[in-house]
Amino acid sequence: GTQNRLFLPRGSGMFKLGREIPAATSTSYLTNNLSVLETDGKKCLAAFVNRNIVQLVQYSPSELDQLTTHQRIAPEKISGTQLFQAKWCTFAGLTALAVLSVAEVFFYSPDGKLLLAHPVPPAASSTETAFSRGVDTWQGQLVFVGCASGDVLVFGVAVGQIVHKSTFRAHGCAVQAIACSSKAIVATSDDQGNVKVWNPNTLAEVCSFPGSSLPCTCLVFHGDSIFAGFSSGHIRQFCTMKGRLLCEVNAHARCINALAVDPKAGLLASVSDDCRLQVWSVNSGVSLKYSTAIVNSMLMGVCFHTDGSLLLTCYDTAGFVLFNRVV
């Protein structure tokens, strides 16, 4: 519980520590290990991976409603399948949980029904393991999923069913992360730190930003910018319109595991192995607005709620940490 942890906030009083939301299992050491579906004005459904299961927790961000319910999803087809990521996707009027594993890409309904299982392409080398990692939804129409082979799988909906539409080669090594813009662009990153931007309609490359051999672990869009987090602890802001680097911030002392953006407030949240949550203002330049340390807790995922509050997952911890927006 929070009474056993040390929180060291600094900066403005933009956020205050809320409650811990319990879960039945702990969070695995995986990047981008949190996804939140806001089901209505009061309830949310959070998903994270613990080894070979996905833990779902229904909760309310409100301090007045502390009731939680728990559910588990385990891929039926292969016992002991290692999972890499789980993310809520809403496309073509259908809401599904994409579950990425070493063998297949699974899609589940919110009540746990299996909708699709699609095989992952073989890895580029026979000595490497195939897996899927990196997923996002583009304009409520398509879902893009990255693979160890460097391929990206594209899924859509036909006659009310999720279907695999196409596959394209995006990178020469394993895909790390995928982010989709509200505009006609999709970004992908890889183990070597390369970031590429694609036209989702033609699957043609729009522009690219070379890496420096360190993985680009997470991506988010804000306006015409891509914010990319790296294992080095750096955040880089790229302009998709001009195809160039706008700025680089030495944001964390260790690997950045997840980024989240609140577009209305112009805020970017970053979490890391260094146990810190950092919140940045990104509407005009990049400046640190809030920072806190959760001692001895490597942070694996972060999401904004529509009310501006933040939810975090911590490695090997059975639950979430809620930060309420103050100003």
Short recap of the structure:
This protein has no helices and 29 strands. The chain is an all-beta fold. The strands form seven sheets. A five-stranded antiparallel beta sheet has the order 1-26-25-24-23, with no helix packed on it.
Characteristics:
327 residues; mainly beta; five-stranded antiparallel β-sheet; four-stranded antiparallel β-sheet; 57% strand
Beta fraction of the residues?
over 45%
Please, how many helices? Answer: 0
Please summarize the sheet with the most strands: 5 strands, antiparallel
User: Quick check: average pLDDT?
Assistant: 91
Identify the strand order in the major beta sheet. Answer: 1-26-25-24-23
Distance between the termini: 26 Å
Number of strands: 29
CA-based gyration radius: 18 Å
Q: What portion of residues is helical?
A: under 10%
- Overall 3D geometry? globular
Which residue ranges are poorly predicted, with pLDDT under 50 across at least 5 consecutive positions? none
Would you tell me the structural class of the helices and strands?
mainly beta
Order of helices and strands: EEEEEEEEEEEEEEEEEEEEEEEEEEEEE
